[in-house]
């Protein structure tokens, strides 16, 4: 075994024969994998043998020792990784991007903005935001813009180069373009509120119209009733005449009785 030979040359006093299985197993896994916490199970067997020789009793149970070693390795590597990121990108707050990351994203945006004059006029809408305004944007907004527009800008550059190769010119470049307006979308909550207001407004208008109609209705005169409703007018007249005669007879009877 090459690893065992190297160790015996470095430490000729130590007997590595009990660790032959461990060395062979870790050779197959890879010694660099130890940095990721990937140990062979032979490590735990060697530790048990050491404890049995020390305390003169049998050690049984699950391989807890190697599990603790793996957890300690992961914790150590994570600490190193965080220290490396802080050294490279600066200390972040967890919610906002660090200054180094934002600077890197801003550099990429400026690189894409440098191709604006090369693109065709109708393909320049991704650059409606001034480059100076990007310095005040968040890292998330920068990354979203880069992810969304980079493929389109690359495709638009190919079209512009092809048109230039054909020696063609777009007439639209001589026409001043209107400013691009941002489309504002209403939220569902606001839309529901506006619908409710519209319904209540319509009901109010309907009630007002009905009231106006009722106020406009006038009681017809006898002459108008005789003209528009002759049958009803005759019935009403006959009823009134009969009622009057009955009242007169009743009054006379009461007078005679008294």
From TrEMBL:
Designated name of the protein: Uncharacterized protein
Q: Where is this region: Disordered?
A: 175-232
Traced from the root, the source organism's taxonomic lineage reads:
Eukaryota, Sar, Stramenopiles, Ochrophyta, Bacillariophyta
Which intervals carry biased composition (Basic residues)?
183-200
Which organism does this sequence originate in? Attheya septentrionalis
Name the residue ranges with Low complexity bias: 201-227
């Amino acid at each position: 075994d090459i690893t065992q030979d190297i160790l015996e040359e470095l430490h000729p006093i130590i007997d590595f024969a009990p660790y032959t299985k461990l060395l062979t197993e870790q050779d197959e896994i890879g010694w660099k994998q130890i940095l990721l916490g990937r140990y062979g199970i032979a490590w735990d067997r060697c530790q048990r043998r050491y404890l049995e020789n020390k305390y003169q009793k049998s050690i049984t149970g699950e391989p807890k020792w190697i599990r603790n070693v793996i957890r300690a390795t992961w914790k150590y590597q994570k600490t190193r990784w965080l220290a490396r990121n802080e050294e490279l990108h600066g200390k972040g707050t967890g919610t906002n991007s660090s200054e180094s990351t934002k600077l890197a994203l801003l550099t990429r945006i400026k690189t894409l903005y440098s191709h604006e004059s090369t693109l065709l006029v109708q393909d320049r809408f991704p650059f409606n935001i001034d480059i100076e305004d990007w310095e005040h944007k968040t890292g998330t907004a920068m990354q979203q813009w880069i992810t969304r527009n980079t493929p389109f800008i690359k495709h638009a550059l190919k079209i512009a180069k092809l048109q230039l190769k054909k020696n063609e010119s777009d007439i639209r470049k001589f026409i001043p373009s209107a400013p691009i307006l941002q489309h504002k979308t209403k939220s569902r909550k606001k839309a529901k509120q506006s619908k409710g207001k519209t319904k209540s407004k319509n009901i109010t208008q309907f009630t007002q119209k009905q009231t106006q109609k009722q106020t406009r209705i006038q009681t017809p005169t006898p002459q108008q009733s005789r003209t528009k409703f002759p049958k009803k007018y005759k019935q009403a007249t006959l009823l009134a005449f009969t009622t009057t005669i009955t009242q007169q007879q009743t009054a006379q009877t009461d007078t005679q009785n008294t």
